[in-house]
Structures are given as C-alpha cells and as structure tokens.
Design a protein that fits this description.
- The complex is a heterodimer.
- By secondary structure, chain A is mostly helical.
- Chain A has one domain.
- Helix content of chain A is about 80%, strand content about 0%.
- The longest helix of chain A has about 35 residues.
- Chain B has a domain of about 90 residues.
- Chain B is about 65% helix and about 0% strand.
- In chain B, helix 12 runs antiparallel to helix 13.
- The longest helix of chain B has 28 residues.
- Classes of the chains: A mainly alpha, B mainly alpha.
C-alpha cells in the first residue's frame, strides 16, 4: 500500500507543478465573474443562471484535468524511459498502475474541491446562504464520476498507442454517456431488431455517468438526495473503477515497454 | 526574391482595398435593429433563431425548476407546445401528470433519485430566475413578439417591475414597430400601472389601427387554417372600454362595446354588458334630471 501511495504522491505533486489547473481555474473564475456582472432587468438576485454556467465550467474543467492528467501518466513514463528505473525497484506493474490511478483521482479531487469552494462562494454571494450538504453531495458524486473516467483513461493509456487518441476517445465516450446514456433504452424502443437489442445491451453495459451529475438539483435548489442512494451510487462507481483498473492491469502486465 | 515580395505587397493592398470597399456596403445592408448587431447574434449568424428557441425553452425549464422532458422523451413536444411559461394560468389549480411514467428498468428507477421528479412551478419572486433566458432569446430573435409579451407579464405580475417591463416592451417595439400585441401590452402598463389614462388610450388606439393594418388584408381563414387574431382585437377593445370607463366616459365606452360585439366570439355576453351599461347611463341621466 505504501508503494501505491508513494507513486500517487508523485502524481499529485506533478499536478500542482503543471499549469493546466491554474489556467482552467482562472478561466472559470473570469467567465463566472463576467456572467455575475451581467444585468438582467436590474435584478441582482438572479442566481440559477449563474450557478448553471459556473457548474458547466466546473464540469468541463474537471473532465479536462482528469483525462489529460491520467492519459499522460504511463505513456510519459515510457517515452522518457523512467518506467525502467521505476520497475527496477521492488514494485510490481499493477502497483504502478494503481498508484497512478490513486494519484490522478486524489489530484482531481483536490482540484474539484477548489472549484466547488469557488462555486459555493458565488452561490452564497447572492443567496446569502450556503447549502453545504447539497454541495458536498454534488462534489462527492462528481468525484466518483471522475474516478470512473480516470480508470477508463488508464485503461485507454495502456491499450491505445497514442495519448491524443486516448484523450479524444475518452472525451467522446464520456460526453456521449453524460448526454445520452440514460436514454438509450428509450431510443431502443423505437428501433427494429437486432439494433434494438444491441442498443439495450449497450445501455446495461456502460457506466451510467449521468447518475453522478447532480447539477440540476443544486442549480434549482432541490432538497438533498437520500444518503443511502448516494452510498449505492458510490458502490456502483467503485465497481466500474475496479473493472477498468483490473482490465488495465491485465493489459499492462503483458505489455512490452520498449 | 523581390518579385515574390512585390506580389505579397500587391495582395495585401488588394485585400485592404477589398475590405475598405465591402465594409460600408455591409454596414448599409445590416440594419441597426437586426440581431446581427449584437455580439451573440453576429457569432451565431443564421443559427441564432434556433438558439433563441432553445433559450425560450430553457426559460420554461427554469419555470419547472429543471423538471422537464429531455429531447429523447415523447412528452417533449407536448411540453414545448404547452409552454407553461407562456400560459401560467392554464397550469394553475390542476394537478399535472408527470411525463416520466413508470420506470423501465432498475437504472431508470435509480436515476430518478438524482434528478427532479416532481412537477412544480416557480412562485413569487423566484420567477426572476427564468428572465435571463428570455432576455437572451429576445436578443437573438427580436422579431419574436411572444418573448417580450411573456417577459413583460412576469415582470409585472410576478415582480412588480413595471418600469423594466415598459423598457423591454419598447425594445420589442423598436424591432417590431407595428406590432399590435406590443402596443396593447404597453397600453396595459400605462392604464393599470401608471394610471395614465390619455396615453393608455392613445396606445390602445394605435394597437387597434395596427391590428387592422396587419389583420384586415388576411382572409377570414387562410389556406393553412390560420384565423384572423380576433382574440387580440377583443382584448384591445376591452382595454379601450376599460380606459373610457376609468376616465368617466361611459357613452364612449358604449360605442366601443358595440364594435366589440360585432367582432366578439360570444356577442350575447357583450350584449349583456351593453344592456347593463346602458341602464347605468339611463339611471345617471334620470338622477341629473
């Protein structure tokens, strides 16, 4: 376990040395402040519109950070040939991979926490109250989703040849699931066989990332979800993370490194 | 080498000249009230109407606090055509059935714990939350009169912001100078909020004139099945009658009532009002004698 956390620590340090997070955070702040300063009918209590935009920027930024960070880990180690001295130490391939995953997941979690603190401040500036439990629930679920995305990217980084191909692939898949994943079964109803059965099978196989998106609930001030449901969603997310990581470890175990 | 540079300089001069020649012509062709004059409109080009429609639907989504069918749901078209934000009075007092129906599988059932699953409407001051979408929609498609009318309704009825409603209606009138609907709403603002009876009457009469200008050339029923907008005519005449009554001119109100009766969907109801008003006038005349 110590070896895994040692690798993870390196990944976390790498994130705050790189400029990606700072640039994305600055852009999010800038665009949100611009939206915040917009005047609609001299009403300075309008907040849901700003909350929705701010959350959208947080989602885009967090996905960019998670995917680009995770996609570069293994290919960078191979290109710079630092993978060889790393594996010469008493550490197995799966521990390197899991360490990289834990590092990326924790690093995106820290970034996400900063984004949500900013979101909370923006929201509180006009609502004059902070719905701490709702925002924490949204942050938690968002982080679980990023865990699945990071695990999926780790699998792509050992299975696909180039990091750019992996990033594009994961971005497309993630956005497709987020926008359409929950409606595939409805689409299948209007299709003929065998396409309908195929689409239904895809619906049950894919990780339903849209479950983890609580943006609508917190934008429109709906009450918090039941914590047992959140726990069940967390277990669902952990199962997919485990699946993708296991698949990545199996591919990486047999992968030629040079 | 020098020949290549000369060609480059000539091309640069040609491009500059072409741009200088095109710019004034482009400015002339694009009127100031066109949406392309706004930054968002310029960026979106011809797609702006589609985006304006999307923004208008977003206002309805906000009115329902996010509880809205997705584009994959069968109920989407029905919900968009109903547009509760345009006709809030129709949704009041009746329990609306949810569009979700029974969950199709365990994922569908589970996902409902993480999204809005109850039909609600914004109440009180919270209606302000949908107004940004209305304003953006109007900016992209200023020819859509409905956006101004609905926004003005919520500004006045929901937020008591009569001045902002008037400004927005005037924006609409700049883009649609002969719209009877907008003139009628402006008349309402002057009659009900400002109590400025003479100006309200002028606006109602302008609305009446514009109604005749736009509706009279149309056939009673067009090939596409559209009717003349007699409902608007009734509302305009109703506004004039209200104004005349408030100004203490029941005899003039009676004249407009007769015009209203000729165009009303239910003339018998108007006749009752005429009779009642006539009796009132007669009683008043009897008292003065």
């Amino acid at each position: 376990m110590n070896k895994i956390f040692a690798v993870a620590g390196v990944v976390i340090r790498e994130l705050y040395r790189r400029k990606d997070f700072y640039v994305l955070f600055f852009l999010t702040v800038l665009i949100t402040v611009l939206m915040w300063s917009m005047n609609f009918f001299h009403d300075d209590h309008i907040i849901r519109f700003i909350k929705e935009f701010c959350l959208m920027l947080v989602w885009i930024s967090s996905l960019v950070i998670a995917i680009t960070t995770a996609a570069r880990q293994i290919p960078f180690e191979r290109e710079s040939r630092t993978i060889f001295p790393l594996l010469a130490k008493p550490i197995s391939r799966w521990q390197v991979l899991v360490g990289k995953f834990v590092g990326c997941w924790l690093a995106t979690g820290v970034a996400l926490l900063v984004f949500y603190i900013f979101f909370g401040l923006v929201s509180a500036s006009r609502e004059h109250s902070l719905q701490f439990d709702s925002y924490f629930q949204a942050l938690w679920m968002h982080w679980q989703l990023l865990g699945i995305v990071v695990a999926m990217t780790m699998l792509g980084s050992v299975a696909l040849s180039a990091p750019s191909a992996n990033m594009t692939f994961v971005f497309v898949i993630t956005l497709a699931i987020l926008t359409m994943g929950g409606f595939l079964h409805k689409l299948a109803q209007s299709m003929s066989e065998p396409a309908a059965s195929l689409l239904t099978a895809v619906y049950f196989i894919i990780p339903h990332l849209e479950l983890f998106n609580l943006s609508t609930l917190i934008t429109h001030d709906w009450p918090v979800s039941n914590w047992l449901d959140v726990l069940a969603a967390t277990l669902y997310g952990l199962a997919y993370m485990a699946f993708f990581l296991l698949a990545a470890c199996m591919v990486f175990r047999r992968k030629a490194l040079n | 080498m020098w020949r290549g540079r000369l060609i480059l300089i000539l091309l640069l001069v040609f491009c500059f000249g072409l741009a200088a020649w095109l710019q004034p012509r482009y400015d002339e062709s694009s009127k100031k009230d066109e949406p392309s004059s706004s930054m968002l409109g310029t960026l979106l080009g011809d797609g702006r109407q589609m985006v304006a429609d999307y923004f208008y639907v977003q206002a309805d989504v906000y009115f329902h606090s996010g509880y809205y069918p997705s584009i994959f749901d069968q109920a989407r078209k029905q919900e968009e055509s109903d547009s509760d934000v345009s006709h809030p009075e129709e949704g009041n007092g009746q329990e609306e059935k949810g569009f979700m129906g029974e969950p199709l599988d365990w994922i569908d059932r589970f996902s409902r714990h993480f999204r809005p699953s109850r039909h609600t409407h914004l109440q009180g001051e919270t209606v302000q939350e949908m107004l940004p979408w209305m304003k953006l929609s109007a900016e992209l498609d200023p020819q859509r009169v409905q956006t101004y009318i609905v926004s003005a309704y919520w500004l006045r009825a929901g937020l008591a912001k009569s001045a902002e409603a008037e400004d927005f209606i005037r924006d609409g009138l700049r883009a649609n100078p002969h719209s009877p609907d907008l003139l009628f709403v402006l008349g309402q603002i002057y009659l009900e909020d400002r109590k400025d009876l003479p100006r309200a009457k002028n606006l109602y009469l302008a609305a009446l004139r514009c109604w005749h200008e736009t509706e009279d050339p149309k056939p009673e029923k067009s090939d596409t099945g559209e009717f003349r907008d007699y409902l608007l005519l009734e509302r305009i005449l109703g506004g004039v009658i209200k104004d005349e009554m408030a100004a203490g001119h029941p005899d003039k109100a009676l004249e407009y009532m007769k015009t209203l009766k000729a165009n009303a969907a239910h003339p018998e109801g108007v006749q009752k009002q005429i009779d009642a008003l006539q009796a009132k006038i007669n009683a008043g005349a009897g008292q003065t004698k």
